[in-house]
Amino acid sequence: MFKSDIEIARKANTISIQKVGSKLGLQEEHLLPYGNDKAKISEKFIKSVQKNKNGKLILVTAINPTPAGEGKTTTTVGLGDGLNALGKKTSVCIREASLGPCFGMKGGAAGGGLSQVIPMEDMNLHFTGDFHAITSAHNLLSAMIDNHIYWGNKENIDLRRVVWRRVVDMNDRALRDIVTSLGGVSNGVPKQTGYDITVASEVMAILCLANDLQDLQRRLGDIIVAHRSDKSPVYCRDIKADGAMTVLLKDAILPNLVQTLENNPAFVHGGPFANIAHGCNSIIATNTALKISDYVVTEAGFGADLGAEKFMNIKCRKANLYPSVVVLVTTVRAMKMNGGVTKNDLEIENINAVKAGCSNLAWHIENLQSFGVPVVVALNHFIKDTEGEINVIKNFVSNKGSEVFVCKHWAQGSKGIVPLAERVSQIADEGKNDFRYLYNDENSLFEKIETIAKTIYRADEVIANTTIREKLKQWEKEGYGSFPICMAKTQYSFTTDPNRRGAPSGHSTPITEVKLCAGAGFIVVFCGEIMTMPGLPKVPSAENITINKHGDVEGLF
User: Fold this and answer.
1) Is 405 a catalytic residue?
2) Active-site residue identified among 56, 72, 336, 458
3) Which of 61, 66, 73, 74 is flagged as catalytic?
4) Residue 239 contacts residue 256 (beta carbons within 8 Å)
5) Are both 109 and 136 inside the same structural domain?
6) Where residue 201 sits, what CATH number does that domain have?
7) Which of 147, 281, 457, 510 is the most buried (most CB within 10 A)?
8) For all residues of the chain together, what is the average pLDDT?
9) Residue 90, beta-bridge partner list
10) Binning pLDDT at 50, 70 and 90, where does residue 106 land?
């Protein structure tokens, strides 16, 4: 019987965080420890390595997620361990876990099996407090806006045009749409507002895109919080909140260093969702890792149509980076689900369903190749996979001009992924790369949206009403036309319908709302029904999470 992820993590042979840092040349004085097994990296050290040559960046992404599970983070961690096993000086860079999915349905974000980042419990719970700092900074701005209005409204904010909501790092549907300041004059002016989940906050995006504290404060100051009656914007700096927000984030902006089960360095920092935000770990963490590692393995959230697209068009633009090679994760089980098989029948061999489901894999391969980067496929192995099913995927990928490697890192750790690690490092070292963005900065905002929808999602058209089109044109006039696009869309399908798996044709991309994130430096485009505050499922994971008589956490996964 297999052990659970938390049981494996609890029995890990950990080393001190100082020894982990020493593998990358990090002296003890530059590690700010949070206990014995995690630490932040000092600002002084980060500045000291900026002139170092960058290592090779490897991006791990995946097909559209299914209930069958794909194991993207598990593969990211496993590949990092595999490269280290080959003697390659390698770091892993992933995002922090949100409490919402941990207590909801998705579970944690530390990998799984023998390819995990530890300490697993800490990572999936409060960790080093970064998300709490982001929540506090975001809500400080909310409080200061209301306070500004209460004490005379010097900036002449139109109470109907306050766009800054509040956040909490929890799935709580009851907070999506609320009225504040009830109970009398002393409580302020009542207004309709709501909460988003912390990982959807623009503050989260800004933290993950800022280069340093000064850049962080500038970006925070650029946040548009409301509009006046003449529709002119009111910025965070007008409310004089940017300085205090930066103070709250002064430690949160520093990358976190932990270790894998095989005691290799892992940077875990930032956590924007990819279906409602840009889905990448912080630029500071990635850049720091690249300056002190020969290879850096990072991931982009959810499927490649969301996470990888945003990684290429947003993060690479902002950080002036590009991946040397992209690893696309899939499974036999996921191919069967995309081919029409229900979750209950996944363990039954079904060659035809695998063939049918490969249409989803094909689009992701083609989309990634359109960025001019080498693409290899990691077939994350499950014990019930048959040779016939595996061979279908091998033949299919070969015909798409790519390569596939069967990976058994979940059960075997680094030794189960060595063939992929060898090939990835070889491709990265060869340097054959013609990286390009999907669209140019000079394209109009609507052209950028159409390019993503028609090229990546294979939509026939983009549907947007006059109000949305006029907003986009107005933002172009105001100087925001060069911003990249951050699509907010379901992660489960190329379409805006989460139930349409595979490679669906004959669909449109409807735009329901657009949002200017002037601080983060992108335009969020909401497509179809998308929630910025998720709800808990009928049976949330929280029901099974507890502390046993030995004081150990149980139920996290």
Assistant:
1) no
2) 72
3) 74
4) no
5) no
6) 3.30.1510.10
7) 281
8) 94
9) 295
10) low
Q: How do the residues of the chain divide into helix, strand and coil, expressed in percent and rounded to 5?
A: 40, 20, 40
* Annotated catalytic residue 198: no
Which stretches within 320-465 are classed as H helix?
A: 332-338, 351-369, 387-399, 409-412, 418-430, 445-451
Q: Decide if 265 contacts 255 (C-beta within 8 A).
A: no
pLDDT digits (tens, 9 = 90+) for 37-56: 999 999 999 999 999 999 99
| Secondary structure of residue 359 in the 3-state scheme | helix
Is residue 254 situated within a structural domain?
no
One of 131, 302, 363, 371 is an active-site residue; which one? 302
Q: Which of 468, 477, 471, 509 is nearest to 490 (CA)?
A: 509
Query: Is a pLDDT exceeding 70 seen at residue 1?
Result: no
Indicate if 302 belongs to the active site: yes
pLDDT of 304:
96
Point out the catalytic residue in the list 89, 106, 394, 500.
Answer: 106
Instruction: Indicate if 72 belongs to the active site.
Output: yes
| pLDDT average, residue stretch 22-46 | 95
Q: Cα 162 vs. chain centroid, distance in angstroms?
A: 27
Q: Based on the fold, state whether residues 512 and 466 are members of the same structural domain.
A: yes
Do 119 and 148 share a domain, yes or no? Answer: no
Tell me if residue 473 is catalytic: no
Q: Which of 410, 446, 483, 522 is catalytic?
A: 410
Percent of the chain with pLDDT over 70: 99
Query: Has residue 25 been placed in a domain?
Result: no
Specify whether 95 is catalytic: yes
> What does the H/E/C string look like for 235-285?
EHHHCCCHHHHHHHCCCCCCCEEEEECCCCEEEECCCCCCCCCCCCCCHHH
Query: Beta partners for 299?
Result: 60
Question: What's the pTM value of the predicted model, to 2 decimals?
Answer: 0.94
Active-site choice (45, 382, 446, 483)? 382
The active-site residue, picked from 274, 300, 308, 378, is: 274
Say whether 56 is catalytic.
no
Residue range(s) defining the domain that contains residue 165: 131-248
Query: What residues have CB less than 8 Å from 96, skipping those under 6 apart?
Result: 109, 123, 127, 130, 131, 256, 268, 269, 270, 271
